[in-house]
Amino acid sequence: MAEDFHKPTQFSGSKFESFQGGEDPALISRVAHETAHALLARVRRDPDPAVVDRLVAYTDEHGIDAVAELWSRATPRSLPGALWRLYLVRLLIRQDPEGTAFLYQRGTEVTVAIDPLVAGAVAPTGPGEIIALADQILRGIFTGDFAVALDRAAAFCRVTSVGCTSIADDLETTQPVRSTELTTRALRFSTTAQEFGSCARLWRSESLD
């Protein structure tokens, strides 16, 4: 953990950035896994509401780079990798709640899957509802069924991916650049959904390291 915290880092909503840092990959991996397991075990053993509130809102005050320094380079299908992606998705939502709610709401309108029910956002989903969903999912990893929280995150990503694809199709002729950006974002959300789903299955089998 950085000794000096930074102000919240602003991310483009279309990017899942990788972070650089550290010289020893083995050390980075060990620290990532140890801190993730220690944090989760400590909070889940005694989920004090004030502590959970601070952890959910941690990046609002300290910035995503403080979390990234620990977990961003962990493999996607690992506990630190899952925690990193949960915090990153929450940050992307909070930085653009209007845009994210629009993409998600479109997804709920065109998907044929049960993902909107699994994600659990209030419908219709506006900016306030999408922020509440992000906080509920992150809170769930500390106070509820961890696998269920991951399933909800995966469902959110799938719905949003479908929404991105639908709107990209609408804009293909009139705004081709924007259409391409949304198609790329849809792929990123879809990939992240797969990673969350894999982590949920590993957690249920007690194999999420």
Short description:
The protein is mainly α. It has helices at 25-45, 49-56, 58-62, 64-71, 79-95, 97-110, 115-119, 127-143, 146-171, 176-204.
Tell me the strand percentage band: under 5%
The largest pleated sheet is described as: none
Mean pLDDT: 90
What shape does the CA trace take? globular
Portion in helices: over 70%
| Termini separation | 20 Å
Quaternary state of the chains: single chain
What is the alpha-carbon Rg in Å? 17 Å
Separate helix tally: 10
* Class per helix and strand makeup: mainly alpha
According to DSSP, the number of beta strands is 0
Low-confidence stretches: 1-22
**What is the total number of structural domains?**
1
| Element-level helix/strand string | HHHHHHHHHH
